[in-house]
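BUG-487 | component: ligand-complex export | severity: low

The export step for 6OD jobs runs without errors, but we want the raw record kept on the ticket for reference. Input record follows.
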Amino acid sequence: MASVQLLRCFIDGQWVETDRRFSNVNPVNGEVFAQVCEADAATVQRAIQAANRACSGPWKKFSAVERAAALRRIADGIEQRFEAFVQAEVMDTGRPVHQARSLDVARGIANFRTFADLITTASGDMFESAAPDGAKVINYVTRKPLGTIGIISPWNLPLLLLTWKVAPALAMGNCVVVKPSEETPSSATLLAEVIQEAGLPHGVFNLVHGFGPDSAGQYLSTSPDIDAITFTGESRTGTTIMKAAAEGVKEVSFELGGKNAAVVFADADFDAAITGVMRSSFTNSGQVCLCSERVYVERPIFDRFVKELKRRTERLVVGYPDTKDVDMGPLVSLQHRDKVLSYYQLAKDEGATVVAGGGVPVFGDERDMGAYVQPTILTGLPDTARCMREEIFGPICHISPFDTEEEVIRRTNDSAYGLACSIWTTHLSRAHRVASQIQTGIVWVNTWFTRDLRTPFGGAKLSGLGREGGRYSLDFYSEISTICIKL
Ligand code: NAD
Ligand code: 6OD
């Protein structure tokens, strides 16, 4: 067996070992490949204090241009270790290597470069008004760092989602304490190495490992000594963190769960819609918060669509992450596999027709110990079924027919969530008309999961609070104040 690595916390520029350890498991075969140092309450507090001290240390004097240069060094550092990051993501999650290369690590680099560009080009508002005596007053808006930001991230796109928060937080001059998911500690640990090499002042970036409740996540989010918290994860966890943040009226930004719809009109480019729904339902084994678990297809093309999606789904290659033509690896963990399989069973109990999949693949090798499930298509459920309302977060979609535009808008919006929607149509005014009525933070037309990083991202309803991306990130990660000067 290969040697088992030890993943440590990183606090105040030093690597920190703790007594409590937990195992990092490869979801391909269930083997333990690393031990992770869990931060207790005192260790998390040490990280927060280091960040607080760093906020008033040399980092405070860095100009925007100097911070941008630091961010670019981090991006370069990730690029230099590109394959190590790919390996870290693949070992933690089991995702296909080609996906880790083209999406996860590429986006990690892009996040740092984008925010480096943004802070060196951002402009602020300035207004001219008059004082009571008629003298001219200029009013301008400044941004100061908020202070110490707690960043808590999930396991589904570990590096992408972590850097999406770390980059703008550092860009605006804050210090951070990050807590990656217990399922995916590896790429965050590599990122700490890169940041150490990039020469940021001690304490600007701190990393603590651990779980949520009664562990590092809870200690970080309930600490009175952080200034803001940005969280990506389940809506239920967001509620718990929001309660903690209410004490002390902390700034919060939440990117939470989804139960997203894909809407396919009969006038859509059929092949493009099929390819698009394959991507939006099965990318990363369905473990992207933006994935479509509800697919609505206009009745004239419903039967043809179901038949073709089934054909394409049954051809998906489920296997080892490093095989060239693999489409899907395992789910992130055996625990998550059990959750997804419980929904496969619930769907059957609720009366669904299983069009494809519905179980676990059998390989006859070590992968049978892994967290694999089959990509699954269902039909026949009413919109009221639990499988149509609850986020499953696996490679599963349910296809329903619809008859009118009004009906599909109403059914798409009939959800406690409001994260994303994709519409497939070649009718220009329909695309605009429908998109404008969908209650989600983002609507894609004839595409999915492509977004300029300068645009806002976030969810409506249970899917989140606030927006990040471009200047929306600059706003969240800063204390905005107005200066009015009578001339
Ligand atoms: P999760 O909420 O279980 O965990 C997310 C993080 O929060 C982990 O680091 C975990 O350790 C920590 N945590 C858990 N309980 C906590 C507590 N009580 N206090 C503080 N920290 C706590 O989510 P997950 O299972 O890791 O991720 C999957 C979920 O994330 C899905 O619901 C998915 O839709 C959502 N997600 C949303 C977005 C988005 O942008 N909207 C992006 C990715 C994932
Ligand atoms: O595109 C992004 O920046 C983003 N936050 C994507 C979220 C994906 C969820 O799994």
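Assignee comment: Attached the raw record above. The longest strand covers residues 136-145.
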